[in-house]
Write a structure and sequence with these properties.
- By secondary structure, the chain is an all-alpha fold.
- The protein contains five helices and no strands.
- The protein has one domain.
- Helix 1 (17-51) runs antiparallel to helix 3 (68-96), helix 3 runs antiparallel to helix 4 and helix 4 crosses helix 5 (112-120).
- The two termini are 32 Å apart.
């Protein structure tokens, strides 16, 4: 497979918004991995407390913070934020480089209407 060369200048990686968004996503994924390890440890502790006969009421009042449900919510929130940032950045960059909204939708696996919303979005990228 041969790659088609573009007339669009390629920015230095420090100026490349898509690379920066991908780097942020990877950083979030590393943080999520740490939280997942903590969540797995917490599940093991809860199982042990249940095996000892403690009620969920007793367990919930003893659980250290952030609680298991908080760890899960933080993971979801962070992943949605980083994934959204990458999707917006990629959509804008691809559009600036001449792809149609239909082509971008196909590449990103979203609808054309979603691409339109991504391009209109004023959220920080």
């Amino acid at each position: 497979m041969q790659l088609e060369m573009s007339a669009t200048p390629i920015p230095a990686s420090s100026d490349d918004a898509v690379i920066q968004a991908m780097d942020q996503l990877v950083a979030v994924m590393h943080e999520i991995s740490h939280r997942n390890e903590e969540a797995a440890r917490r599940v093991a502790e809860i199982r042990e407390m249940r095996a000892q006969g403690l009620s969920y009421r007793d367990i919930a009042t003893r659980e250290e913070k952030p609680r298991l449900v908080e760890l899960t919510r933080e993971n979801l929130d962070d992943l949605l934020d980083a994934g959204g940032r990458l999707r917006r950045t990629a959509a804008r960059t691809l559009h600036e480089q001449g792809l149609t909204m239909e082509q971008i939708a196909e590449l990103l696996g979203v609808t054309r209407q979603r691409v339109s919303a991504l391009l209109r979005s004023r959220r920080a990228v």
